[in-house]
Amino acid sequence: MHSALGGVSCFIFGPYHFMLLPCLAAKLIRLPQFDMDDQCFWSGSSSGAFSTFSSWNEIRRRNPKVPWFPLVWSKALQLRQFVFGWRLMHKKIPTDDIISHKGIPLVSKCNLCGLDVESFNHIFISCSFSVALWKQFMDCFGILWLDPSDLHQLSLWSIRKRRILSVKDPWSVGFVVVADNIWRERNERRHDGPSRSVSHVFEKIKCDVQDGKFNLQGMIK
């Protein structure tokens, strides 16, 4: 019997069977015997019940949360705004400078101010039209415009301000809503649509924020 077992182990494990068999034997445990039916428990959830959500959480690759997470992944935003916010923070918006970097030459001009070439930072941060919208939004919360160097700096500053505000959710969604309306106005003008004033676009921003179903009484003027 010993020789037969040795022959099988040699066939399965090769010349290392003398090392593997003791390790396998050490893994053998005695299972307790109870007078009850066996039950299956899924270790991927606290309840023990299997679900596709819990199985996905078990196998998916987890990356650390980015600092701008609360500004983009808010339940008050629409699905379209989720996607836009993600693209915005990853610089996946097709501004003229980003398109040019892909090897496509463009004659560029900002469609909002008409004073400078269009770049990612210009259209969302330094364009006079965009700055006017950011300032009006922040005036609603009694906060002065930061004049940031880029969108990443603005997002970090917005997160810090969020901690001290009593109305955190409207402030958070405003980051994406303002940028989204800036980009939509740019697209309207770029494709021969109507040109709206700063006050007109800001009214649309307020409507978008209020669509989040917050209690904004006395907060948005």
Give a quick precis of the structure.
This protein has 221 residues and is mostly helical. It has 11 helices and no strands.
Question: Could you walk me through the main structural features you see in this protein, from its secondary elements to its overall organization?
Answer:
- The chain has 221 residues and is mainly alpha-helical.
- The chain has two domains: 2-27 and 40-59, no CATH class; 69-210, no CATH class.
- The protein is 54% helix and 0% strand.
- The chain contains eleven helices and no strands.
- It has helices at residues 2-13, 17-26, 52-59, 69-72, 79-89, 96-101, 120-126, 128-139, 151-164, 168-190, 198-210.
- α7 (120-126) crosses α8 (128-139) and α8 (128-139) packs across α11 (198-210).
- The longest helix is centred in the last third of the chain and has 23 residues, at 168-190.
- It is elongated.
- The protein starts with a helix and ends in an 11-residue tail after the last helix.
Q: Mind sketching the topology for me?
A:
Layout: H1 2-13, H2 17-26, H3 52-59, H4 69-72, H5 79-89, H6 96-101, H7 120-126, H8 128-139, H9 151-164, H10 168-190, H11 198-210
